[in-house]
Amino acid sequence: MSPPISPTEQPTAPPIPVPTQENMQGTSILTGIFGDNPYFQAGFGLMGVGVGLTALRQGLALGSTAIRRRMLVSLEMNNKDHAYEWFLVWMAHNASTSSQKRAAHTWLRSHQLSVETAFEQRSNGSSSALFRFVAGPGTHWFKYHGAWIQMNRERETRSMQLMSGTPWETVTLTTLSRDRHLFPQLLTEARDLALKGQEGKLVIRTAWGIEWKQFGQPRRKRPLHSVVLDTGVNERVERDVRAFLARRQWYADRGIPYRRGYLLHGPPGSGKTSFIQALAGSLSYDICLLNLSERGLADDKLIHLLSNAPERSFILIEDVDAAFNKRVRMSDDGYQSSITFSGFLNALDGVASGEERIIFMTTNHLEKLDPALIRPGRVDLNVLVDDASPTQAKTLFIRFYGESDEISKEDIDRMGQQLEELTAMEMRQGRRISMAALQGLFIRNTVQEAVAGFRELFVDRRT
Ligand SMILES: Nc1ncnc2c1ncn2[C@@H]1O[C@H](COP(=O)(O)OP(=O)(O)O)[C@@H](O)[C@H]1O
Ligand SMILES: [Mg+2]
What we know:
Strand content: 15-25%
Distance between the termini: 102 Å
Strand order of the largest sheet: 10-9-13-14-15-12-16
Low-confidence stretches: 1-41, 99-107
Mean pLDDT: 79
Helix content: 25-40%
CATH architecture of the largest domain: 3-Layer(aba) Sandwich
Largest sheet: 7 strands, mixed
Number of domains: 4
CATH superfamily of the largest domain: P-loop containing nucleotide triphosphate hydrolases
Bound molecules: adenosine-5'-diphosphate, magnesium ion
């Protein structure tokens, strides 16, 4: 680029540095041109402006790349990482608090929201949905401790994550380099927020492709003593699990895989599921719920899931008999479950890549289970969780009505005693009552009604 005219030739040129080949660029030439030179008007002047602007624009473009490189820092998180989930929760939390005009340090401007629904379908048919608005794909800005941070959420639509079938997503945070120290702080805050939501709660995960994903919101823990099992059963299982957890080194020294399997069998509504959940809660363990009849689950995925369960979790396989009832199992939609029994045994025996593995299985039909499954190493403790025993009936009754103000403690005890005897009497005639049925009776009725309607609920369990 050569200047339209050499400024040195102008007698009235302002006292500016004499442009040489080296510095004849950018601002110096502009000032040179716009010195009050009478020749520079109209055409020449405009031409000069054009040249100057081009130079300026090039300079700016170069400059912004340099600024971006030198002065901005970016942090990328993808949805394979915990931080990704934590950040979105944090973002949603802050967006909702700032919209309540309580904006602390965070201010969020988003026109693009996406909704994440935690949907939960319970076995009794009820369901709940919780909507959480999070920043959708696109670019958003927010201010954090005085620093502006740009957030860019992108969804990769073309490729899916192998096996799990969820699209790749990334969130990129960009801020000025001098504020880079805010990233760890922000992530710590996000993590603490996410973990606080789970504190004292039971987290349940389900298999999603080959990954374990949180299912619904964390639930309130159920106190272990609220599940009333027959005398000693509760303690026996709890003691076994605790002993196992304390013997990690013992297993390691002997080269034995550090894992243990439990089978709880018995009629429906006896508290198998409730007990396992309460036990997990009392040990601060999570539950990984595995449904063997789930469509799309194949032997190789099963092996992967069993050996890659998150730390501190029980793997819970409910109704373990159901998956292998028939040789080829067809579900309602004619879909063929592709788990084989031998594949399942392999997965149970397989080397866990995780440190420890605790599997709980439940069944209503012990007799339907292949003896190969109940072998030690696969099932180490096999426990019967039965219909209400006389003691269980009394204990549950006192649990429900013992706090009542209207009736004295002595009367409650006496009635409990009465129910205990009634239960023993019914049992001698082969009639039983499930704990779930008892719970239902006690929830719906007053003490007197419960005692009066008690015997009606027994059913013949002789086959
Ligand atoms: N032993 C028990 N103690 C207290 N509640 C029980 C017991 N057994 C069943 N229930 C109640 O009955 C319902 C069904 O129990 P659940 O644990 O699902 O039984 P299971 O898994 O054996 O079929 C739950 O609401 C639970 O609170
Ligand atoms: Mg159950």
